[in-house]
Amino acid sequence: MNNNDHFLRISPTENKRSHHLGQFILQLRRLERSPRSFGNAGTLTPSEIHTIDAIGNEGSVLMSELALRLGITKGAVTQIVDRLESKALAIRSPHPTDSRSVFVSLTEKGQEAFRVHEEIHVSFYQELRSTFSEEEIDIFERCLMKLTEAMKR
Description:
mainly alpha, three-stranded antiparallel beta sheet, two-stranded antiparallel ribbon, 7 helices, 5 strands
């Protein structure tokens, strides 16, 4: 018997759980690739709406801070903000005292996309609350935190 054989033998229950987790991850990936409509803001890609969400209600955010929040490069943020500007959802403005820094803020149309996105989150959470008990939601949230930590490793 090979030393790695014990990794290949999993119980039917473990196999079923692994399958469910795989299906969940595939569903998340599908959602992350699918553009959605956000009111008058129109159809936005997940990266665009996540950027809008990261700017949020703060008024304006430094481009470098936005890159940190999203966990992507400044170049990637620049490309996304270019698209948001072309859709009249965001606008860049120079920093008043640092010529190397640039602020990005949401236009009125961008703020509407932010609000619609928030409403989608609230609606989804309400749907969960109608499906699960408080105890199940607490367990689910703890499991999500642990899953997120495990995925970071």
